[in-house]
Amino acid sequence: MNATTYTARAHTNIALIKYWGKKDEELILPMNNSLSLTLDRFYTETSVTFDEQLKDDLFLLDGSRENGNKVSKFLDIVRKKAEINIKAKVISQNHVPSTAGLASSASAYAALALAASKAAGLSLDKKELSRLARRGSGSACRSIYGGLVEWQKGTDDQTSFAYPLEMPNNFEITMVALVVNADYKKISSRAGMKRVVETSPYYPAWVQTAAKDLKNIKQAIVERDFETFGEIAEENAMKMHALNMSAHPHFNYLEPNSIKAMQIVEKLRLEGVSCYYTLDAGPNVKVICLKRDVKVIAGTLSDSFGQEKVLVAGPGPAAHLI
Ligand code: PMV
Predict the structure, then answer these.
(1) Ligand 1 test: best mutation among 34, 149, 280, 284, most atoms within 8 Å of CB?
(2) Ligand 1 centre from 260 Cα, in Å?
(3) Same domain assignment for residues 159 and 222
(4) The domain containing residue 15 runs over which residues?
(5) 105 CA → ligand 1 middle, Å
(6) Which atom of ligand 1 is nearest to the CA of 28?
């Protein structure tokens, strides 16, 4: 086999209806469907070369050698599919402002899925790529596509994958991110979701209402009803964080400045600016708004937290080879 290098770029995504809980830990099958927006500003570029000369897989992230156990486990899935037994060199670069704390396993595994499958001689369609990326990190299956994306939970490896949703014209959704803390999260999403599934008494209500939230947010997208869209996204995020606070032992990703930013968003809303917040497994606050309101929202957050903590991103493209 020729040691050809393939390089792929994949963008991060922000979930508006969250994936929070697995029904199969090994295959990464989620408890509920989720919906996200792929972002233009933040992405990962990854090069993969399968090389007969290598004794072990080699993984470099942002220029330094990293423990590649998770990457090797993922490459094993690719090797099995391609029926090869060759080690690989993986070179990955995160294009996320270094202090942003927004680096994501979603862009990482989407880029790795595309580059590694190509380098291994596979030619996967988007559905197969999405299924493969899912095995690295659930949210990565959505980063195979650009714009608005739904992940259908499915019932097994074959049926759990993402697909793109139509973005209506003149529905210019934008995200203003506030970096509250750029450190690594205290509780990984993997550990956090496992704990809520096993211990939160509210988990069944989450599964039920997430399905309702998804149906309603899709209707709001079709109707270009941004207020309803934002309200549902914000409420869904708060339900996810309420699950964490109701787990045993309970945990919490929010920090004082997360709450402060959330209150600023609520105040802006009272003043007539359409904006809604969402938070993932960390303290950073992402404000969902329309492009026309970015200036006032970014300006208000910059006044309180400093301009360098505020980042703006719009809808981004699908994963692609470069
Ligand atoms: O894909 P993971 O294991 O990084 O989990 C992602 C979980 C959330 O970001 C909190 C929600 C989501 O749907 O992206």
Answers:
(1) 280
(2) 23
(3) no
(4) 5-168
(5) 8
(6) 3
Which residue do the tokens 């809808």 mark?
Answer: 315
Beta strands 88-95 and 58-61 are parallel
Residue corresponding to tokens 């299924």: 131
pTM, full prediction: 0.97
Spacing of C-alpha 88 from chain mean position: 25
Q: Whose CA is closest to atom 9 on ligand 1? A: 280
What ipTM score was computed for the predicted complex, to two decimals?
Answer: 0.99
SS3 181: coil
Question: Quick one: 161 and 55 in the same domain?
Answer: yes
The helix (H) or strand (E) run that includes residue 289 is: strand 285-290
The ligand 1 atom nearest the CA atom of 190: 3
Angle at 204 between CA 133 and CA 147, to 5 degrees: 35
Number of Cβ within a 10 Å radius of residue 124: 19
Considering 118, 144, 168, which residue would you say is the last residue of a domain? Answer: 168
Q: Quick one: tokens of 161?
A: 């994958």
pLDDT of residue 96: 83
Span 186-245, pLDDT tens digits: 899 999 999 999 999 999 999 999 999 999 999 999 999 999 999 999 999 999 999 999
